[in-house]
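Subject: design request, 288 residues
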């Protein structure tokens, strides 16, 4: 057997070993990370800054804590334009991103490597072609961008804008919803679903709701969903995800079919969490 064949066999063996061993090592590492609870200072911070954290059932909160630990342990946070990324910044992004995968069995954005955080909105160049093939170059000012499966870019100013705000606005949830869309292999607002039947239900409900929103925006009517959701199907899914987590009761009451589909996809029912808390607290006033 010549040296070339030996080297090829050794390379193949190394690849096979990596494919087999790496997932097992990652799973073991994640199990260990999830077993270490967040300290009380971190939990207090998340109660103030993260939607739903203070309302979700304790079992869900513990699972989110574990996902946050895994996320922070695996992802690189990069401060841009002189920004220093603090632990609180990491906690804020990680907890809101992990809300979207809280109902999953094992998923912590496996392909994602880096989160780039700018102090405020940032500018990106863009090219687009018209029907005649003419190329137009322009610049976009963005608050977030799911660049690809390897990195996500966020504006810290816009992340902070959701703290204490009344509107269903959350740039972290928005961009990580785009990530789930990209992860499914497209940018059409359809994340990975479990069956053909679910695909059919999703397509029917989302297309109907999207068409209704576009018609409402065109005639200038007030809408629960931000008019930006009418841009295209991908933005519709991302905005709907923001409202699902930030204003769950309103989405359930105003768009029950849409809420039901998102609840099935995320495997969560956040609209019920407040009701559970109120039911467990007889001295709470019921004002809403």
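Subject: RE: design request

Done. Sequence follows.
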């Amino acid at each position: 057997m010549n040296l070339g064949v030996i080297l090829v066999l050794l390379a193949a063996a190394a690849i096979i070993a990596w494919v087999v061993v790496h997932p097992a090592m990652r799973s073991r590492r994640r199990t260990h990370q999830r077993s270490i609870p967040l300290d009380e200072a971190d939990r207090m911070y998340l109660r103030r800054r993260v939607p739903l954290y203070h309302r979700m059932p304790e079992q869900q909160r513990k699972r989110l804590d574990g996902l946050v630990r895994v996320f922070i342990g695996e992802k690189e946070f990069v401060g841009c334009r002189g920004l220093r990324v603090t632990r609180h910044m990491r906690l804020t992004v990680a907890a809101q991103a992990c809300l979207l995968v809280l109902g999953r069995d094992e998923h912590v954005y496996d392909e994602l490597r880096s989160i780039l955080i700018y102090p405020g909105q940032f500018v990106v160049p863009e090219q687009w072609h018209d029907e005649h093939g003419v190329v137009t170059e322009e610049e976009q000012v963005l608050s977030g961008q799911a660049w690809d499966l390897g990195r996500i870019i966020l504006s810290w100013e816009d992340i902070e804008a959701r703290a204490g705000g009344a509107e269903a606005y959350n740039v972290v949830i928005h961009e990580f919803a785009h990530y789930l869309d990209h992860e499914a292999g497209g940018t059409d607002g359809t994340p990975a679903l479990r069956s053909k039947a679910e695909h059919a239900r999703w397509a029917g409900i989302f297309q109907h709701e999207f068409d209704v929103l576009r018609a409402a925006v065109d005639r200038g009517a007030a809408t629960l969903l931000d008019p930006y959701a009418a841009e295209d199907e991908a933005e519709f899914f991302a905005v709907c995800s923001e409202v699902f987590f930030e204003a769950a009761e309103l989405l359930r009451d105003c768009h029950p079919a849409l809420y039901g589909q998102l609840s099935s996809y995320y495997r969560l029912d956040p609209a019920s969490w407040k009701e559970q808390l109120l039911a467990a607290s007889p001295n709470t006033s019921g004002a809403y």
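The chain has two domains: 21-167, 184-274.
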